[in-house]
User: What shape does this take?
Amino acid sequence: MTTKTINGTSGSDTISVADNGADFDVTLNGNTTGPFADDTIIVNGGSGSDTVDLSALTSASGVISVTVSGGAGNDTLTGSTLDDTFLVSGSGEGSDVYDGGDGSDTIKALSDGTLIQLAGDFGVDNNIETITADGKANVTVLGDSGNNTLDFTSTTLDGVVVNGGSGNDIITGNAFDNTIRGGAGNDTLNGAAGNDTFQVSGSGEGSDVYDGGDGSDTIKALSDGTLIQLAGDFGVDNNIETITADGKANVTVLGDSGNNTLDFTSTTLDGVVVNGGSGNDVIIGNAFDNTIRGGAGNDTLNGAAGNDTFQVSGSGEGSDVYDGGDGSDTIKALSDGTLIQLAGDFGVDNNIETITADGKANVTVFGDSGNNTLDFTSTTLDGVVVNGGSGNDVITGNAFDNTIRGGAGNDTLNGAAGNDTFQVSGSGEGSDVYNGGTGSDTIKALSDGTLIQLAGDFGVDNNIETITADGKANVTVLGDSGNNTLDFTSTTLDGVVVNGGSGNDIITGNAFDNTIRGGAGNDTLNGAAGNDTFQVSGSGEGSDVYNGGTGSDTITALSDGTLIQLAGDFGVDNNIETITADGKANVTVFGDSGNNTLDFTSTTLDGVVVNGGSGNDVITGNAFDNTIRGGAGNDTLNGAAGNDTFQVSGSGEGSDVYNGGTGSDTITALSNGTLIQLVGNFGASNSIETITADGKANVTVLGDSASNTLNFSGTALVDVVVNGGSGNDAITGNSQINTLRGGEGADTIHGSAGNDALFGDNGNDTFTINGSGEGLDTVNGGLGNDTWLGLGNHDTFNVISGLGNLTSVENINGGGGNDRILATAGDDILDFTNGPTLTSIEEINGGSGNDTITGNGGNNTIHGGAGDDALNGAAGDDTFTVNGSGEGLDTVDGGDGDDTWLGLGNHDTFNVISGLGNITGIENINGGGGNDRILATAGDDILDFTNGPTLTSIEEINGGSGNDTITGNGGNNTIHGGAGDDELNGAAGDDTFTVNGSGEGLDTVNGGDGDDTWLGLGNHDTFNVISGLGNLTSVENINGGGGNDRILATAGDDILDFTNGPTLTSIEEINGGSGNDTITVSNAWATNYRGSAGNDTFVVTTSSAQSTILDFDDSGDDVINLSNFGLTLAQIQALSTAEGANVRIDLTSAAGSGDIILVGTTLASLDFTGSSDFIV
Assistant: This one.
């Protein structure tokens, strides 16, 4: 037998074989046609997409067998009428179209792992009787990517797996045992008869419809993580007897997204998990142990018989109805945070023996939104939290330790036996009824801000041993809106605040440190033992009765503007140690509308204001700094110790009795127009140090209708007006600036120190002062006959120009002592001609300005003060006073009567003008005690006192700086010409004419009768004279006083000889001035002599002491006349000796006279031979 091999090229060959009965050999190049006489034909298609057509080859050709190999490429292979064999090897031969033709045709694999790829549909028309692995392993018949129908009903499948490929395929097996794999795409798989196996691998193979047909059929996973996806419903009609993981891990049977019924009653599930997918599915297990997962959607899960496990993972799997059926059934969480959602009621009929977190964290069994009963009496809860969901649920635990959360809605939660934990999170979980049952049961917060809401009463019957915040912040136990009794005597409160809610509640704490808040409504709050804190927030929380119990208990504010409202009396029996604002602003402790006693003696008030409310209350502070407000009603307010503040606002707050107690206490206004109303007398016993408007306008302190004494001498009044009210009141201000009103009645008002505004209003009012330290008051008497009265011995009534600070004051009465009316420092006009009536006023004083003062018909004492004043005494014997040397140049008109200008100080100066033109009607000038003077202005003044006024105790008449003419009177006058060349006449009397220093002029001095003296007052006085002392008349003495004083002649040729007087005393130098002077030298007059400029002659007398010539000119200009001694020049030379830089002429030894010292002269320079230096 000869074998003919036909090798196609690498192109797409078309091979047509025709039997012509002859023997031939054919080489195919391109299209070839030829007869064959060989026994066997083998066709190899090569690597191209070939078309092999052997349909014309029949048995008559002599060929016994035909073998065709399409090779690589997608080939179209048509067999002969004989028994053809199509060979495939490996996985790279492309997708081929097969037509076996007549005969019994076979597709055969040549190697392990062969992939027999079918192009398009496959079925009876393909005329393939057998597809065989021929003993090779892992041989697969693979459909292409199209949506194909692969029907193997007429084809024997031997050792191969059919895989539909990636399309949505329909695969039908045959009557034998088939192995079918749908592959990618959503396939319809029919096993037909036989025990068929449907294979699935991985998670990407689509959702398939399975029909196992006759036989015992199996779906089998090929790999870990396989997803066996079922399309549509599944049940007995699918004819699948087994679904198996075949030992693979994490194999899942997954329903599609529809609402399907997956019934595995007739199907064995081996190592797989059933997952219903995303639809609302009904899943029914079988009699064995099933693992079922509803998946997304609201599912109905029935385990049937067996110990079934229902799996749930994550929070997105919907609300399911569970029925475990017979056996011990479990719902199990697969991941942290799993939400096991129950649909409807749950209980013994659900046949679930266990719900377990299986070690996962944060697993919750969650009820749906309905009002459900979840009864776990017969179900073990392992590591899960039960949450009732949003409905009004009834949840009952079991005999073990349960964790239950009611969730939204108003729930009834029963822990049953065991140590149960009831969880609450956030503020939206409704009001629940709790019954912990037996065991130690706890309500626990899960988050900051949790609101644990209690429905109805709470107490020992609720069997809750602990309510805890578990470290969370701002956790509150909140009662509902009813009037409830919340008794935590048997319940430990850990880190939570109890809030009674909006009803009128009774809340009782336990023996530990509780935090309690009454909430809205009028509550009774009992802290019991422990250091309890009662919280209040805002202004809407009702009036509460507090009893702190034992321990150190506190009421604290939670927000700005909090109103802590007290019901009834408050005191030591309330057992509250502290009420605090806790740093919040505008916090008030507020009494109710009754007449209450609020005693905080044993309670610390921290940053709060106590307000008694609308009743007639008695409020007592503590030893610290309190802020108290009586509120409406007539209250008695006691600050006790500490620096207390009493607040008043508006005009409607009643008349109160204040007692500040010890400390510095204040009444303060809170608003414009505040009326601070006092009851009865007010003074030191009220212990109020300050009443202040605190910057508010129109604030009044008002006395009541009785005749009261309101004494504010110890109380600072800051920007408030005091009004005595309607009685005959005695009102006393303080040292500050007060505004005091008498109101109705005959009031006595004393402003005290400070520039006060005093109003008598109606009635015959008396305004009093006491002493000289009171301010410049504005006094308005109002209606009635009003008096300004001095109470002391030296009262000063301060006024302004025109008496502008006095209105409707009919009388000024100084009372006892020396009293005065004193004007301000400005240029004031004070005219009392038309009133007020002055009584016991010893002085009217204009102050420091240029004032005009006019007295009345009485004997007035008027003091102009500093400034150039115009003073008019009018009728009466008036006295005009000066005090010291600082007063101005006053114009004084005594008017009628015997009037006196009087000095009050020790060194008074009476200022006058020339001709005494500023004095009219003044009969007397009296200096009083001390050294007083009359001082003229700076001009050329004429002062002549010959005809008056009478001068008494005037120590000096001073002409000032001009060329003055001053004539004294018959008394002993002291006259000082001052600067300028003055003419001074002493007249009769022992007069004294004074100089002071070296700056005075060349005065003409006439002492007149008496023993008169020209006196130096300074340390270096100069007495200016002319030759022959021609400017001095009747001056018996010249006295230099202390210091180095001199007599100085004018600039001409002067002759100075004091032999016949005046008597010189304390004159240190006689100076001839600048001319050719002749000076008689005698130590009896002066020690030193000076010729000054010019050719001077010093005539030496036989004085008994040494004299010094200070400027002897030995060059021949000056001459010493020693003719009185009878000495020759030689004798004089013998008596002359050098003494340092000077020359001494020793007249003492020669003539018994004193020596002459020539300063700055040498012996050699003196001429002892002629007459140039000496006259003998």
About this structure: The longest strand covers residues 3-7. The two ends are 204 Å apart (CA to CA).
